[in-house]
Design brief:
- The complex is a heterodimer of chains A (101) and B (179).
- Chain A is mainly β.
- Chain A has one domain: Folate-binding fold (2-Layer Sandwich), CATH 3.30.2270.
- Chain A contains one helix and six strands.
- In chain A, the strands form two sheets. A four-stranded antiparallel β-sheet of chain A has the order 3-4-5-6, with no helix packed on it. A two-stranded antiparallel ribbon of chain A has the order 1-2.
- Chain A is globular and about 45 Å long.
- The two termini of chain A are 14 Å apart.
- In chain B, 23% of the residues lie in helices and 32% in strands.
- In chain B, the strands form two sheets. Chain B has a five-stranded antiparallel β-sheet with strand order 2-3-4-1-5, with helices on one face. A four-stranded antiparallel β-sheet of chain B has the order 6-9-8-7.
- In chain B, strand 8 and strand 9 form a beta hairpin.
- In chain B, helix 1 packs across helix 2.
- Classes of the chains: A mainly beta (101), B alpha+beta (179).
- Chains A and B meet through strand 2 of A and strand 7 of B.
């Protein structure tokens, strides 16, 4: 079982968490002014990263809070977790997958 | 709550008994709300994560950054009266106070094997260094959401939603047989 670090509660087992999709996607301020193409981009288009991916997670069976995580999609290793109001930690995309600790 | 089903065999231990009915509230609010609530509830609120404060029969348990469980294990008055007092104290402040007294039931698991029994369904590290006395959290026991609160080195207070009561207690008894 993976151990995921909740920014509020600390190290917790993965079954307490739910996945919340790609992080840092901002909802357009005036959706009615967008054309279909731009709205579809916001709704459906997501990156399909091989490597470190910023995504939202929710500590659903704990404190209930959403937070952001950097996860290596090739190894499932959580490189970092941070609160929604914190900036994304700058971690360079490694040439090789980040091995789990 | 139905009576315990007939045991599968004579060695099946009894289910842990339900604790007496308690008064419970979920409070959402910022530091100003918590300060006002403390005046009415009589117990301060832990500001650090996953910690409970206990004073007499009343306790406050940290559930999330702005969410607390208020628990009175020996209420002297009706929950509605207590809620009115809290609402008066917090008047004018943005908050949410919900009476969940009847939503949850509780059991106490104590004794030298208490941690082992809970680990039969809960994957948290319950070593005293990792989960000290006074620590509380919402977590999972097998498929059920529970609130786990360590009240002593060898005692845990376990809150569960009422409809999961049979499931959790039967499973606790089953695990206890193997410990």
């Amino acid at each position: 079982m993976l151990i995921i670090v909740c920014p509020f509660c600390g190290k917790r087992p993965e079954i307490e968490f739910t996945y919340g999709g790609q992080a840092h996607i901002t909802r357009p301020e005036r959706p009615s002014e967008l054309d279909d193409q731009a709205w579809a981009e916001f709704l459906y288009m997501r990156s399909n990263t091989k490597g470190i991916h910023a995504e939202r997670w929710r500590h659903a069976r704990g404190c209930g809070r959403f937070f952001n995580a950097l996860r290596d999609t090739t190894t499932d290793h959580f490189v970092a977790t941070y609160r929604i109001d914190e900036p994304q930690p700058q971690i360079e995309q490694p040439a090789e997958p980040v091995p789990p600790p | 709550m139905p009576e315990q089903a007939a045991p599968l065999d004579d060695a099946a231990p009894p289910w842990p008994p339900l604790l007496a009915p308690a008064t419970r509230f979920i409070l959402h609010g910022n530091a100003a709300v918590r300060a006002a609530a403390t005046a009415a509830w009589g117990v301060p609120f832990a500001e650090e994560a996953c910690r409970a404060r206990l004073l007499g029969s009343r306790a406050t348990l940290w559930m999330g950054p702005d969410e607390y469980l208020l628990l009175d294990r020996a209420p002297a008055e009706a929950a509605g009266d207590t809620a009115s007092g809290l609402e008066r104290a917090m008047a004018g402040l943005d908050h949410a106070l919900v009476d969940v007294s009847h939503r949850q039931v509780a059991v106490e698991i104590n004794g030298a094997h208490a941690g082992h029994i809970l680990n039969g369904g809960c994957p948290l590290d319950l070593d005293l260094k990792e989960f000290p006395v006074g620590m509380c959290t919402r977590t999972l026991f097998a498929k059920a959401d529970i609130v786990l609160w360590r009240t002593a080195a060898d005692a845990f207070h376990v809150e569960m939603w009422r409809s999961f009561g049979d499931y959790v207690r039967a499973l606790l008894a089953e695990v206890a047989r193997d410990c």
